[in-house]
């Protein structure tokens, strides 16, 4: 009996033991299922993180490339802005007796302040152009992708790839968009950038014409402007500035992208480096956009050189009376230096920007590839 009881106890004990032996297999299967679920969710979250990180890198690269190209163009081309502002200011404030050629204004400026006088207002110009173009390029890249996601059927040039939205990119990571969308993209980007740097633009214009105040930097000038003339003084001439800058950017960017596509298909330029297409496209687009928006630019100068509280309508009436006095060629005073500046600025900014963005594309690809490889391990 003791032996039987022991046997029964062993037999009855074997049931639970057998149950315990079978449960590890079930636990293992459950763990595998949970592991597969976690791994799939981690892969999806990892891919979303990579795409967000890549978009952030592209925005930073756009801003940095735009700032660098803008600062370079501001330093090199500041004399053309000084000459244009002086020519426009002389006619607008003093009338016919102050109509002078570019060479006469250049000689007079150098005689009064030396060669350095041609670079008056360079510091606010660097901040204005560097910040403005940095913001402009960043908005351009973001909106170009947004507009491109709506468009279908574009063919990538070179070694491109499809983006999630259904559009395609070329080897430089650029989304192809229609001329109409390019027009809207350039206009929206310029509105944001123009409003942002408007106070610096007012200070820059006055420094170029009246000269810099002794022992005052442009930050102190902005603060003084705000104290004396209020918020209206900081944004004096913003409407004609928008009326000049926004159509310029819309026309320029639309022509620039259209010519880029056409030149990329031209047999003579097919084997040429991209910088050649950038030079041709930017210079031609700049001439058309500059001459089209010249009347609005001189209205901007009229408003920003005005220290009174004249409204935009009053400044337009003053400009109209000056046109009746001197003829409508007044609207194109200073167009020579402005066209020169815009052509070389477009060449410098867009060529330098495209090359810097292309160079950073290699680094961005390496970073995203490295991160992807580490996540796959």
How many helices? The count is: 11
**Mean of the pLDDT scores?**
75
Radius of gyration: 31 Å
Low-confidence stretches: 5-22, 38-45, 150-173, 373-377
The tally of beta strands, per DSSP, is 2
Describe the structure in brief.
The chain has 377 residues and is mainly alpha-helical. Helix content is 79%, strand content 1%.
Overview of this protein structure:
There is one protein chain. By secondary structure, this protein is an all-alpha fold. Helices cover 79% and strands 1% of the residues. The chain contains eleven helices and two strands; from the N terminus they run H-H-H-E-E-H-H-H-H-H-H-H-H. The protein has a two-stranded antiparallel ribbon with strand order 1-2. A hairpin with a 5-residue loop joins strand 1 and strand 2. Helix 1 crosses helix 2, helix 1 crosses helix 3 (122-150) and helix 3 runs antiparallel to helix 4 (179-196). The radius of gyration is 31 Å and the shape is globular. The relative contact order is 0.12. Mean pLDDT is 75; it is low at 5-22, 38-45, 150-173 and 373-377.
Please describe the topology of this protein.
Layout (H helix, E strand, L loop, with lengths): L1 H93 L7 H12 L8 H29 L10 E2 L5 E2 L9 H18 L1 H13 L7 H17 L3 H28 L8 H19 L1 H11 L7 H15 L8 H42 L1
Antiparallel strand pairs: 1-2
